[in-house]
Amino acid sequence: MASKTPEGMDRRTFVKTVAGTLAVPAVGSLSAEARPAEPGPAAAKSRPPNVIVMICDDLGSGDLHCYGSSLHTPHLDRMAQEGVRFTHFNTAHPICSASRAALLTGRYSSRTHTGGAYGPASKSGTDLDEKTLADILKTKGYRSMCIGKWHLGYPAPYLPTNRGFDGYLGVPWSVDMNPLPLVRDASVIEEQPDRDLLTPRYTEEAVKFIESAGEKPFFLYLAYSYPHDPPRSSPRFRGHSGLGHQGDAIEEIDWSAGQIMEAVRRNGLDRDTIFIFTSDHGPWFQGCPGALRGRKSTTFEGGVRIPFLIRWNGTIPGGKVVNEWGSNLDVFPTMASFCGAQLPDKTYDGVNLSRLLTGQTSNVDRGTILYFAVSPDQQILECARKGNWKLRVSQRTGEIYINDWAGGSCGPSRHFMLPRPELYNLERDPAESYDAAIDHPDVVREIQQDIEALIPGFPENVVRTYAEMKAHPGSAITPPGAAARPAGMVVGKGMWVPAERRGKS
């Protein structure tokens, strides 16, 4: 039997009504007292800030209006205007589960042994000895709620209520997986919820959580199921964008973000709340990666560059566009800093952005950051970036642009170390179209040396896989930017290859 709302109508009807009546712009211009004020130090706050993290599934770096899209996203545009919008922000991994684990732990998923994308047959999840952001905020008295797509393990020990969260309502994996149970805490409450209503149902639950905040600070992790394929929206938003299901799903997410911001303002919590809006990685089949190469599951920038907005009225100066590199790995240490929480004794791969966000510094020195390929334990290193330079050191065989399992590109493939690492200047060449290694051998050597220094600090399977690739490079005739040619491939009679690409494979 469907659960009932206080008014007595069934939940399906109620949520449709909510989506219909509140889909009009419910959040207008903020009053003068709610507009961003001059920044003040976080330490001067009388209580730790609330934290709301909104993360989409497969939203591209060019899918929001404030990032150049023609879609109508006024609420997120307003968040950008009143907060900070990053133009160079990357996910830690270009696949679902691995990316989310990195955001919630501040560590590469190769350290936390998180799979790429857990499904109904999966029997494990992110290592149980890992501390999530909810875990560390609990030590500071936070109430926490996880709503939406979890995707870090479905057996009970891996569910949110055993990973630091006080409550959970959502689905355990992606909307293209079947079955898709709706779970409340650790119990299935619907075997097959209506996928069209997931966004308004998540929104309804989030607003209820905010309304019941009380005096304690809270952490809300709201993980939308869309615009992941197959994208869906509620009846009120069907046809809203004029750009099909994908556009409708994104515009409904914008509506939802507006409802969340309005609930915070209505409860007098605007100056006490940090809002974050981002994505787990780039778009899959549909959606816009901007003028970038690649899509979801690739380590090209189209697969890892994501939107990132952050707003904290009165503490983070608004109206800023930041061109410094950021990563979802940074969310964990930055929120720990803002909330006064202690980091556990582990190796962290993100950096604390609090001084950058509050205007105390204009740059961040993060050293070299690594890009791991989609693999069972994310153990295969493909690239490393230092500043604006990105060095591609390995690549797999077969299709390298998109993860289309039905088309066969997710079938058996092998990674090879590239015989000549490829170097891209992401500032001048964000589409990774021009291999500049021949002009900057010193940069190639420097990043290679950084990789050699970093790899020994990873789990044994990462160290072993890297050594194996080094011992078995791909064919020397692999062109820059191509899928790796298998070792042993030689020049055919009808092919001309320049001298620098010849040699034994």
Task: Please specify the SSE layout and strand pairing.
Layout (H helix, E strand, L loop, with lengths): L10 H11 L28 E7 L17 H9 L1 E7 L5 H10 L3 H4 L20 H6 L4 E7 L17 E5 L10 E3 L2 E4 L7 H14 L6 E6 L20 H23 L6 E7 L21 H4 L3 E4 L8 E8 L3 H9 L14 H4 L10 E5 L8 E6 L2 E8 L18 E11 L15 H14 L5 H12 L34
Parallel strand pairs: 1-7, 1-8, 2-10, 3-4, 3-7
Antiparallel strand pairs: 2-9, 4-5, 5-6, 8-9, 11-12, 12-13, 13-14
Helix pairs in contact: 6-7
Account of the protein in words:
With 505 residues, the chain is an alpha/beta fold. The protein folds into two domains: 47-366, Alkaline Phosphatase, subunit A (3-Layer(aba) Sandwich), CATH 3.40.720; 369-501, Arylsulfatase, C-terminal domain (2-Layer Sandwich). It has twelve helices and 14 strands. It has helices spanning 11-21, 74-82, 96-105, 109-112, 133-138, 198-211, 244-266, 301-304, 331-339, 354-357, 441-454, 460-471; strands spanning 50-56, 84-90, 143-149, 167-171, 182-184, 187-190, 218-223, 273-279, 308-311, 320-327, 368-372, 381-386, 389-396, 415-425. The strands form two sheets. Strands 6-5-4-3-7-1-8-9-2-10 form a ten-stranded mixed beta sheet, sandwiched between helices. Strands 11-12-13-14 form a four-stranded antiparallel beta sheet, covered by helices on one side. A hairpin with a 2-residue loop joins strand 5 and strand 6 (187-190). Helix 6 runs parallel beside helix 7. The chain is globular. The termini are far apart. 52% of the residues are buried.
